[in-house]
Design goal:
Number of helices: 3
Distance between the termini: 44 Å
Radius of gyration: 16 Å
Strand order of the largest sheet: 6-3-5-4-8
Number of strands: 8
Helix content: 25-40%
Order of helices and strands: HEEEHEEEEEH
Shape: elongated
Length: 150
């Protein structure tokens, strides 16, 4: 079990994320969580880890990978902000969803909760890059499911 971070540790991590992500990060003192609102400096897309691995692999090949948070049930891809959060219907069956504008996103308090941590040389991924790569991965999965067994 991970030890609960001190407020001093959270404050240091909060400042680090604020500088990297360009948006205010708040500390929820009672629960000792770091929060950032979606919609201004960043947006986010969630998907199951198994599918997220394929999407991240595609983004890495294209040199477009950005920060990804490892959650219990989902991976969360941080993206640059968009005016309209459009997730095509063909990604519904794979449980790919947008985190609505204005919702508080919990940021990891430690590095081990990141699949790919933010860095000074890396901006969040373009929304369209994540969605396009997810659609490509979904198309590949559908083709594999339809192909006859060898």
């Amino acid at each position: 079990m991970t030890a609960t971070p001190s407020l001093r540790e959270l404050a240091a991590v909060r400042t680090h994320y604020w500088e990297l992500l360009g948006s205010p990060v708040t500390i929820e003192v009672r629960t000792r969580r770091l929060l950032i609102a979606t919609g201004d400096a960043l947006d986010a897309i969630t998907m199951p880890p198994e599918f997220g691995e394929q999407v991240l692999a595609g983004l890495r090949i294209a040199m477009l990978a950005g920060p990804v948070i490892a959650g219990d049930a989902n991976w969360t891809f941080l993206t640059r902000p968009v005016v309209t959060q459009s997730v095509p219907a063909d990604l519904d069956r794979l449980r790919v969803h947008a985190i609505p504008h204005g919702q508080q996103l919990v940021l990891p308090a430690s590095d081990h909760q990141w699949v790919l941590a933010p860095s000074p040389r890396q901006q969040p991924t373009l929304w369209t890059a994540v969605i396009g790569t997810a659609r490509r991965a979904a198309h590949h999965l559908a083709a594999v499911e339809l192909s006859p067994a060898a």
